[in-house]
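Give me the fold.
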Amino acid sequence: MTDPLPSNVRRLPIARAPDLLRNPGALFDALSAASPDGFLISSADGRLLAANERLFELWGIPTGERAEIRDLGDTVLARQALRHAFARRAASELDCLSLRDPTAAYTDEIVLRDGRVLERHVAPALGPHGAMEARVVVFHDITRCRRDETELRDRVAQEAALASLGELAVNAESVTALLHAVCATAAELLALDAAAVVEAGPAGTTVLAAAGIAGDVRHVALPAADPRSRPGGHLAALGFVAALEVALPGRDGPARVLGAYARTPRAFSLEHERFLATAASVLASALARSDAEQELLAQERQLRAVFDGARDPMLIVDDGGAIVGANAASCALLGGTRASLVGRPLDEVATPTASRAGGSGWRALLAGGGDRGEAELEAGGRRRQVEVTVTPGILPGRALVALRDVTETRLLHTRLALADRLASVGTLAAGVAHELNNPLAYVSANLAFLSDRLERVGRLLTGAPPSPSDAELARQLQDAVSEARDGAQRMRVIVRDLRTFSRGENDRSGPVDLAPVIESCINMARAEIRRRARLTRDLAPVPPVHGNAARLGQVFLNLLVNAAQAIAEGAPERNEIRVVTRTRPDGRVAVEVRDTGCGIAAEHLPRVFDPFFTTKPPGVGTGLGLSICHGIVTGLGGALEVESTPGAGAIFRVVLPSSPAPAAAAAASGTPGTAPGVRPRARILVVDDEPLVATVLQRTLQPDHEVVVAGAARQALAQLERGERFDAILCDLLMPEMSGMDLHRALVAAGDPHARRMLFLTGGAFTASARVFLDASGADCLEKPFELEALRAAIARLLAGAAAAC
């Protein structure tokens, strides 16, 4: 309740009440001038002394009735008539003022039938002796104040409800509970017949949740409705005639609507609309989150299905490199279950061997971000090579490690490259046979001649009388031996070239001198070229390149054969194949093979390095040669370029990074000049299962050293175990029963120093295990046939090394 005496009444001169009562007009004028509220003054005996116009306006008394009351004058009847007018307009029975304490001041409220609210202030006017002489009643319209208070209470209730809904939206496990809570809250706070969330589309309307609707109408399709033309909105088909609907924001596809519905005509206020809009926003956020969670779960299921069903092994690892997830393919590759793999460090599973970023170990790969590398792992008792791709950040603190088993692929590529190389050699087989047959012919003839003349040499040595032809015989024998040695040297070169191009070990890279490689290729391709073109060399001195002699030989031989096949046979004097080497300004080495053949069509140039693409007729080319060459050159860090003009020939350019040759390479070349000037006599053990080879070595070395021959590795091992000592051991690498490698391992296991004094000999048929053995042991190796000076130089180096070790 407010103060029963408003400020304007307090300002009345109550002390002059008797004077004012004797002059009611002056009192009324004073009250009317002091406030816009309605006033009435009644005497102690119940007469109406005064009433202002505002009083009649507040109570809604018409002008005619006002006049009737005023005509009654200052009488009790006038006051009664006024009270009856009040009673007819009040919503409830008026309190009788006479029942209250006449000397007390109080305040109450009166609600009128039209909904307005009047605040009544009653104050007595007391005389000098404390007796009440009059009563002043002030009526103040507080309708707006009460409406504001009601609206404020409603808003507070709505805000509290929205806060609860927001909390529910955050914590609810199911969006269905939130849908029903929103509908129930809206129906209760807004005094609705029903509230519902509906999904509207061209095909019809579906109720997702509702409050105040009998039966379960959820997910029941209703006829499509146009809310702009039907007062009942989307639920007009259910008998609603008034609706306030708010669309849920932020959704693509069918519209979702939160609606308030009434079965009787009703007006909705802006506050109602504001509440529904806010609730719709809360609901839309929750639904969006629910939709996102469902989509996320669906994507997770899809990704999990892709992860589990991927044919490539995949692992999920944490920042520390521990496995936290594995798919079925990785379990099959690594030979374990998911449970046995989870928690294990990657280092226990596989060992990285190379990284594109240059680092080593899993930390470098995981820190590289999208890096690729290679690793080796033990699976099913076999070493496997895998390509590794790391995708970081698939989840916070998680990375995806994809493993692709390339063991068989690498082996297939090696075999394919070797097959292509052998195919190139096979193309030249007729020419190679021709080149071999010529020296073989005169080697055979000269040896036959030597055999026929040896009888006469024997007679000379036994003291038989000489004849005039003996001097000529000595000259003929010398010429025959010289020619035979020359032919043997030519065959040795041819066999060396064939062996270079037939090797399958392609992974060993290092400094390569291009000159001998190119010469070998030219020798191999000579028979194919000579029928078609002149061969011109323009070989400027170039530094060694980083690569592999066999692989580079395959590239150059393929380019030479292609150049020859681009020129028709029959006019070699009019065509040319030119081989050029030069050093580019950037330090890289360029090797060009130029021809004057038919050239390459412009539309074919972009595809010349594609696998299986060829313009040659069937049976002449497979389309793999240039593709393999391109892979070899780019794998060595170089580039293979092509220029061509149709009808004017083509230029294939191999560009390779230079690689300074280590100083040790020259020392290991086996040239005669490397041998020391003084050769101390030493005790040498020759181990070879081929008696003729062992005999030749003994006959050759016997003048300078003491030579002991063992026909098998076990025999040599027995001699060493008996305590025999040797300064050097010349041992065949590959022998039956016990190989030279096995002998070396036995000596190492026994701690015998002879293991460091071994020089291996081989016919060139290297196995993979032999190559690994030579790399690991660091032992020197000579390939047969070898020059005698190269053999003596290798023995001298071996003896010098043994002396330094002592």
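Residues 1-17, 663-677 have pLDDT under 50 and may be disordered.
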